[in-house]
Amino acid sequence: MRILVCNDDGIAARGLRALVEVAQEFGEVSVVAPDRPQSGMGHAISIGVPLRLYPSSIFGADVPAWACSGTPADCVKLATGVLKIRPDLLLSGINHGANFSISVFYSGTLSAAIEGAFEGIPSIGFSLLDYSMEADFGAAQAIVREVILLYLADPFPSDVPLNVNIPNLPLSEIKGLRLTRQARGRFVEQFEQRIDPYGQSYYWMVGRFESQDPDSDTDLWALERGYVSICPLLTDLTNHPYLHHWKVIHR
Ligand code: MN
Fold this sequence. Notes:
Elements (H helix, E strand, L loop, with lengths): L1 E5 L7 H10 L4 E7 L18 E4 L8 E4 L3 H10 L7 E8 L6 H4 L1 H11 L4 E6 L9 H16 L8 E5 L9 E4 L5 E11 L5 E11 L7 H6 L2 E6 L19
Parallel strand pairs: 1-2, 1-5, 2-4, 5-6, 6-7, 8-11
Antiparallel strand pairs: 3-4, 7-11, 9-10
Helix pairs in contact: 1-5, 2-4
This protein binds manganese (II) ion.
């Protein structure tokens, strides 16, 4: 099996290395990852600027790898379009930090998986609920292995990328895996204002997630209780029931 591994935290991120290590147990691994952190880039692509690919030996001779100057979505496009990598499976992550609920819209980790789905590649994004660059990915690696085994035994259609979030707990305290839907909620942003050495204001965006969804079938519910959340995603944002909302429109 050929496996393409991407991420949004950059080619040097420890979460990417953790994912590569597990992926190698399942097949031939190639890596195309951003050359710098690209978290929060969503599904951005680079238009009107040059894209560069730098071969990298960071994962050793057995794992061909490239650092890409673009976004996570660019990485997938260049992997298939320029490097002609035709993976049987695309894995993105392991992200340093959560990607539940509406985070899907902001996440570079998931944009790589969604881009894979656009290209007909079975794709899974993994995130660990620990933002630290020094996070411990030991338990997460065991969960990734378990999810890949489940996936290979009973795959989802290639246009259904999976969003897997892993609680930041020792493996013995993780209660199990749950298929979930995105919790309804929003980020409540706050902006810390500071002054730079030239006297100009600048801002740090800090926010917290506010749930508007008490139900027990959501990603947030599962994660808060120590379960791994596996959310199958749509790549179609059409709100189908509303296609008939304006009855005055006739053909
Ligand atoms: Mn990230």
